[in-house]
Design goal:
The protein is mostly helical. It is about 25% helix and about 0% strand. It is rod-shaped and about 170 Å long.
Length: about 400
């Protein structure tokens, strides 16, 4: 019997050497590594699988060789998981099984770490959610790609929220603008950094719907969009009747709607000084606030016409009031005759007159003046003094033309 076995072994070895091995021509392992000369059975600890590109770890150690090598041609065996393991996920997560599974146990125990490799890491409240709450596939083992948008899972929460009513108010469905993954109910929205309209002062305590009554998309930032009623009902002064600008921040602030203030000095070309400071807006802006004249007579024509000492209108005084009056006091007027006209407070005429009418002989017109009605000015003496002077004529106009400052 031993002789027969020896002959069979010799024949098999001879067949192997002649290229007819049952393991195929690609196997480069000597027969005695797995077999003995006593019989053709495989040694219990023969071939070291760690010498290949596929080490036997975990549960692979206890698997029968034929489970992975159904034929004697060992080189035909594939090293990818799918060649031995049925894809119960139906190709919804790829063919790289060892991303989630290992050879020790087929159960997955590091879902959160695995999910970090996807486009949706599980953070906060998402970390403890059952997979099937988001992955609602027909089979529990299918993980088809799903949307990472909040509304794909939280649309029901969005529609059911009433304070404020998200759907009615047309809130954006980008939940993370107000909610975070740690605490869903404690929502917050940073209006200052997220929008072009920071909330300050009185705007801080307002309910969102007070401004966003028509939804949250395209809400106007102009004051009048919310304060039109305030604008229309204001009577001191009446904004609508006076044609006030609807740009509320010109006079009002976010800190306090009342009292209002308007910096006339910096906002206009007509600074309010002296007596103008205490004047009511409507005293000057009787026809509205657009195009109001800055000329004194626009407001002071009545004062001009009523003045009798001297009578401005009768004397045809110029209407540029600032020539004699100041914004500090209206009644104490001043007129610098010396710098603007003929010197009467300095030079030879100083102290030689007591009233304006001594020179301005026509009270109805202060443009009329006389040089020849006072002191030494008489025709006889003036003719003698100007004897031989070319162009000399005894009248006031000629006197002023040659003596514009009253000197010789």
């Amino acid at each position: 019997m031993l002789k027969v076995s020896s002959i069979m072994v010799a024949l098999l070895i001879s067949a192997h050497l002649s290229g007819q091995s049952p393991h195929g021509n690609a196997l480069r392992v000597s027969c005695h590594v797995c077999h003995t000369t006593e019989n053709w059975k495989v040694k219990e600890k023969g071939f070291d699988h760690h010498t290949t590109s596929f080490k036997l770890d975990g549960q692979h150690k206890d698997v029968s060789c034929k489970t992975c090598h159904p034929s004697l041609v060992f080189t035909d065996a594939q090293t990818d998981c799918a060649s031995c393991h049925k894809d119960v996920h139906q190709e919804t997560v790829g063919r790289d099984c060892d991303r989630c599974h290992n050879t020790t146990s087929w159960m997955v125990g590091k879902i959160r770490e695995i999910h970090r490799l996807t486009r949706f890491p599980l953070e906060g409240g998402h970390a403890g959610v059952d997979c099937n709450q988001c992955h609602k596939s027909g089979s529990r083992l299918r993980f088809d790609p799903i949307s990472t948008e909040c509304e794909s899972c939280h649309l029901k929460d969005y529609n059911a929220t009433t304070n404020p009513a998200h759907a009615v108010a047309q809130f954006p469905t980008d939940c993370k603008m107000c909610h975070d993954e740690t605490d869903w109910k404690n929502a917050s929205f940073d209006h200052n950094s997220t929008t072009s309209f920071p909330l300050r002062g009185g705007h801080l305590g307002l309910n969102c719907n007070q401004c966003h009554s028509q939804g949250f998309a395209g809400t106007a930032t102009a004051c009048v969009a919310c304060h039109q009623k305030d604008f229309n009902t204001t009577i001191n002064p009446s904004h609508s009747a006076a044609g006030f600008s609807a740009d509320c921040q010109t006079c009002h602030t976010e800190t306090s709607w009342k009292p209002s203030s308007y910096n006339h000095n910096t906002a206009t070309s007509f600074p309010l000084n002296g007596g103008h400071r205490a004047v009511s807006c409507n005293q000057c802006h009787t026809q509205g606030f657009v195009g109001t004249s800055t000329a004194c007579v626009a407001c002071h024509l009545k004062d001009y016409n009523a003045t009798t000492n001297p009578a401005h209108a009768t004397a045809k005084f110029p209407t540029n009031c600032e020539t004699c009056h100041t914004t500090t006091t209206w009644t104490t007027s001043t007129f610098n005759h010396d710098s603007q006209n003929f010197p009467i407070y300095s030079g030879r005429h100083r102290g030689l007159w007591t009233t304006c009418t001594q020179c301005h002989t026509s009270p109805a017109n202060f443009a009329v003046f006389s040089c020849i009605t006072c002191h030494e000015h008489n025709k006889t003496s003036m003719d003698a003094k100007h004897l031989g002077r070319s162009g000399y004529v005894y009248n006031s106009i000629n006197c002023l033309s040659c003596h514009p400052r009253g000197s010789t």
